Amino acid sequence: MMHAGFGWVGFLFMLLFWAVLIALAVGLMGMVFHRRGPRAPADGRPTPRQILDVRYARGEIDHEQYELMKKDLS
């Protein structure tokens, strides 16, 4: 009779443990397999998107032009 209430607490802790473990696994897989931005070709030349990003960062083109050109590239 003493352990009747402990069964639910144990069950909740078990659910919490597995939820945290699954969340960590999903987060780790997301970090490992997530592509971060466009990648340069094997020959080391920048992609057109990278060139566009650099031109925008330098202030050579404004936001409107950047968005239009980005849309054209995708």
Topology:
Layout: H1 6-33, H2 48-58, H3 63-73
Strand % is: under 5%
Number of strands: 0
Mean pLDDT: 85
Succession of helices and strands: HHH
In terms of quaternary structure, what is this? Answer: single chain
Domain count, please report it. Answer: 2
Q: Number of helical runs? A: 3
Shape summary: elongated
Low-confidence stretches: none
- Helical coverage, percent range: 55-70%
Task: For this entry, give a set of tags.
3 helices; 0% strand; 74 residues; mainly alpha; single chain; elongated
Could you characterize what this model shows?
This protein is mainly α and 74 residues long. The chain has two domains: 1-34; 38-74, no CATH class. It has helices at 6-33, 48-58, 63-73. Helix 2 packs antiparallel against helix 3. The chain is elongated and about 65 Å long.
Give me a quick take on this structure.
The protein has three helices and no strands. The protein has 74 residues and is mainly alpha-helical.
